[in-house]
Amino acid sequence: MPVSEISIARSGRPRPLQRLSWLLSLALVASPLCAARPAPDPVPLEQVMAGEYALQAGQLADAARWYLEAAKAAEGDILLAERATRIAMLANDDVRAGQSLKLWRQRAPDSLALRAASASLALREGQARKARRELVQLLQASDPRAWRYALVALAGGRDPDVTAKVMGQLVGDGVIPDELVAWQEFGRLSLRLDKPQLAARIVDEMVRRFPGEPRVAVLRAGQLQQAGQTEQARAMLGVAEPRAEHDPEVRAMLAVAYEALGDFDAAARIMSRGPQDTQTYGVRASLLARSEDNEALAAMYGELSAGDGGQPDPARRMLLGRIAEFLKRPAEAVDWYRGVSGGPLRPEARIRTAAALYEMGRADDAYAEAHALQNDAGSDDEARRNAYLLEGELRQRAGSIEGEIEALGRGLAAYPDDGALLYARALAWERQDRIDRAEADLRKVLVAEPENVAALNALGYTLADRTHRYQEALELIDRARTAEPDNAAIVDSYGWVLYRLGRNEEALVELRRAWGLAKDPEIGAHVGELLWVLGRREEAQRYFDESRKLDPDNRSLLRAVEKLGLPAPVAVPVSTTEPAP
């Protein structure tokens, strides 16, 4: 799934020179110059570098092979054995993962990370008994971090049924530590696995162990909601509400739980308790906007407006401007934004001024405001660059394809090869079915930033979705997956390219995992299409229905519906407003 934010995400991953530094430091640790511990064999740099280059190219099978060779050659090197194991597991090469794990076990038999990897591999291979044995030993370790390693191992399983079976056995074995946070996390994992019976069992145990704890009530509500018992879930949250008065953490948890139920009014009511500041007002405003409770939002707006005298707060004025925009009072929004006369929020205020002018029907004034910021030598480069991005967005909203491309092109003339501008233009080209030009812009991003995760994922997904170059797409997505293996958008892209390659059962595992990580309409449409193709149409329809509730106009959903010959999505009465005014 492509990342569609207006600005490109920075991955923070090592660049090629940083990788070389890592290799050299690895060699130093393994060299006789390092007297801190007996030196293992010198690191086989040829194999390690070949593995790293394969990894950078998205050739995970080759990377797993090279790293296994390096781990074998460097006898006694724990780091290489661990890295070889993780890369093989990422490549879904269970044979090499097992061989690397054996080397790792020989070198660090008591490592928590080793036991977690061993359990995860056993789960992937369907060896529930072995996985249970490893996890019991892990959870019985004296290290207080042990349960977190166990949780990671369980989350790495492929088959939710096998994982749920083992989790249930762990509950029965009584090895989960008597810590509320541990039980919370195991409970959340059971909900992500979509296993209501397991979730109910864990919550029942939590109620027994931690009676009267509001966090348990919140988790129980989640379990009831998953089982379709919405009213019972709401009643359970009501039990925990008295604690929210003086506990900010409980307030936040309850607000999130009510939000998950779609009860934004209740979430806003909870957040209105306790001391209020600009941040809490902002959360409340967002919730009221999503519930479309304009009356309550207008009352808050009036309250905040009345308190703006004396020493005006720029953050408060920004919030007032966003609320005014939502209430369809763009002229007032402009006044608030123009009242932010200086400081770090000033560039954002100018951007929002242009957006509000556009909403007033003054498109030419909006473009002029954006142009003024673009040409303001006193503003920093990020603010000026964002003004080009905004103009492109406004031109798109006006239906001007040429205007959007032209605005982004001017931005690139001012900031050649800027990643955010190239990324935005690539998305614009993709919307116009100009896949060749979208690819060209994304590849320009990757020339400057070879490990830019957003660009790798976007290009890989585009090739998988819009061309037949599936193997090339897989390599790009694998490069992104190496950097962020638990990113929902990347996991979705990986599942989608597996589906395109005809590897349907593997694809279903990944797409379901993506859905567990993020309830996104595009991911839901992908899961639904695959299930439909597999003949599991009743289950598929559930995912289509969930996606329609989230966004009936989602492009992937509409394309799936058309492709499969299903009835067109019917709009449902949910808010499609911006999440935060």
UniProtKB/TrEMBL annotation:
Residues 1-35 form the signal peptide. InterPro entries: CellSynth/LPSAsmb/PSIAsmb (IPR051012), TPR-like_helical_dom_sf (IPR011990), TPR_rpt (IPR019734). TPR repeats lie at residues 521-554. Keywords: Repeat, Signal, TPR repeat. Pfam families: TPR_16, TPR_19. PROSITE patterns: TPR. SMART domains: TPR. This is Tetratricopeptide repeat protein.
